[in-house]
Amino acid sequence: xxxxxxxxxxxxxxxxxxxxxxxxSIPLLVLVAVVTGTQTVIFNAAYASxxxxxxxxxxxxxxxxxxxxxxxxxHVAGPAVTGTLSRSSRPPRCS
Length: 95
Description:
The protein is mainly α. It has one domain (2-87). 80% of the residues lie in helices and 0% in strands. The chain contains 3 helices and no strands. It has helices at 2-20, 26-54, 60-87. The longest helix is centred in the middle third of the chain and has 29 residues, at 26-54. The protein starts with a helix and ends in an 8-residue tail after the last helix. The mean pLDDT is 89.
């Protein structure tokens, strides 16, 4: 899971680096999207399957509820924060 998160971070850091070097392109953005999407699928599968090994059977339902709640909050808050941050910066140029 740490490797997938690290890989996603590195892949996403390629975007501002490419923009800074004036090398941002649509194929690069597509490649980053494929890499981060693949790593997200692997991370989410590991994230959900790890829970039963970490909590007692009697606490599993409560833990699943908390896990779902935290994922739902991140799916709502993440794009809102990203939109706010991206609105305050200049758009990158694609070549």
